[in-house]
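Section 5.1 Outputs to date
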Amino acid sequence: MADAFKFELVSPERLLVSEDVLEVVVPGQEGYFTVLAQHAPVMATLQPGVVEVKNASGQAERYCVFGGFIDIMPDSCTLLAESAVNVKDIDRAEIEQRISDAREDVSDARDDEGRAKAQMYLDQLTTLQGAILPA
């Protein structure tokens, strides 16, 4: 059996998860990666996406995060999300509002760099919407 490690998922509103887990899959800035016990120490930024958590009993939960940071140590992992919610509790209207706001940010961008950054966020949100919400 795989080793468990302490995992916490924290948003500004509340502590969503604090338990021993077997693995965590996170949406890193360079793509998804998996955290297991005894992982090398890492601090990384996250992009909007789905965090998959497999707890010590093997049950899996999914959480939607909208950016943030992850701090990984060999015996623990802390994810500080800008915003996070359990996928089961996703509000379709909230995702659609974020997408609408991101589209506005793209059209209001003052330079190419700002437009590219806003477009990347919009693309991430629409991908996330397709991944977690039924059509």
